[in-house]
Queue: 2 jobs
Job 1
Amino acid sequence: LVTTGGGGDGSRMIETYLEGLSNLPRNVALKSTVVFGPQMSATTQSSFIEQFGYLSDVEFREFEPELAQLYAGADLVVSMAGYNTVCELLSSGCNAILVPRAEPVKEQLIRARLLAAEGLFDMVEPDELSPELLISKVLASLKPTVNRPIRFDLQGLPRIRERIRELLEEQEQ
């Protein structure tokens, strides 16, 4: 699964992935679903379909309201590193490669680096993004020997509630 979140700035990632895919020998079966996102222009979407529509193992979707269901069915997700997307990936326990943007702010880049350093996801640095590197990481991540990371603990809110309850009980005593 290849997704850009909203899609407004994800065209480079999608194009790089599709170029890498198109350079593979056709006997390499790599079924892909590309979700453009609601903010990607129709012109850009049409251009990708025109340029890469011959790839019979690629399904193009403009938008997917139930993206979490696609995560669950994917062996691998290639995605940008937006906050909402990363939270969904972490909570679904997906195997993912993050391709963050670094401009106009470095928020996605910082997030992706930290998560990669923890071994939760793989990532591609924006200035190193190439079809060859991305597709090699995709193929490596799909090998059965790759250990999927342990689930990330997302239970902070219940712990905060419990701690506040404890503090309030202490105050009442």
Job 2
Amino acid sequence: MVLMLFMSLAWGQCSDGEVELWDECYTIETTYELHLSDQQLSGTIPVEIAELTNLMFLDLSNNYLEGEIPSEIGNLVNLLGMDLSGNMLTGDIPSELGNLTNLMVLILSDNQFSGMIPHEIGNLSSLIDLYLFNNQLSGSIPPEIGNLVHLSGLILNGNQITGAIPAELATLSSLTYLLLNDNLLDGVIPVSYTHLRAHETEAD
């Protein structure tokens, strides 16, 4: 009996309608913001975070999180802002992030993401700021980024991105800040980018 009581206290602490994340219980219906920056969090991002379907702001920056972003995070369709920067996250940026069409700010910088920037990023029609700098991303910049008509800041420096700057970016009339330095880009900076604070590093 004592053992069963201990187990009930140690596990399953959250009530129905709640989800447990990092030893804390969060109400599924009324958790709209999750600000856990600089909290010494470690391990992987729990798949259960996707149960917070009303979440609008997710900030897990500057912790010790590792592993991949769970694809289930693409279920958080009410998200307006997500900051996972300053961790040790690895793997590809999941294409399921393209489901987050209300997202206005996406910050994945200062991690260890690899692979290509997913083409589905072009589905984020509300996006204003996209920060992916200081990772290990490769491949070319997807031309679908040209669909992000509200994009103001595109920060991709400090990766291993190759190829030329896609012409589609020149159509982004709201784009005011573009950083592409410390990559493996080639070609020239188009004249249409002269109004931007743009930087490009040619391949050796």
